[in-house]
Amino acid sequence: MKKKLSEYLKRGKAVARPLAVTIKRVNEIVRGWINYFRIGKMKQFVKELGEWLRHKIRVIVMKQWKRPKTIYRNLSYLNWKHKNRFSNKEIFKAANSRLGWYKRSGMNVVNFIISKDLLENRIKDGAGLLNPLSYYLVKVGI
Q1: Which of 2, 22, 55, 80 has its CA 20 to 30 A from that of 11?
Q2: Do 129 and 23 form a contact (C-beta atoms < 8 A)?
Q3: Which is nearest to 31 in space by CA: 70, 51, 1, 55?
């Protein structure tokens, strides 16, 4: 499953699609896989999968914003809107970092501003990212 998701979430392909379409397809893949294998004990794997998925989605979001100016503007707006209390200097460092996309999206500033809650609930077009762990626990009956 992770191989299938990796193929679907490759930066070059995923950035070209709208984020809502990408998230809906990822949710379909995860739901199908969990429904098929739910009798196995895989709580830890599903937890790690959720963390990895959120990280990949953050990479795609930042890559879609493209330029440091746009990344700074959008991160500042989300910081202000959700009251995360990061300084403009910290956001500027994350936006203008020379690290790669994957490492840049792993920075604390980006992780807190584009949070788990934001990815699951507040994406336009009604496409929130599925939390694999909670879905698994509901299906197993825990």
Answers
A1: 80
A2: yes
A3: 1
∠ CA 127-15-94, nearest 5°, is 95
Evaluate whether 130 touches 49 at the Cβ level (below 8 Å).
no
pTM: 0.88
pLDDT tens-digit series, residues 21-65: 889 999 999 999 998 887 888 889 999 999 999 999 999 999 999
Tokens 């914003």 identify what position? Answer: 65
d(CA 83, CA 113): 9
| Residue 101, C-beta contacts closer than 8 angstroms, at least 6 positions apart | 11, 59, 62, 63
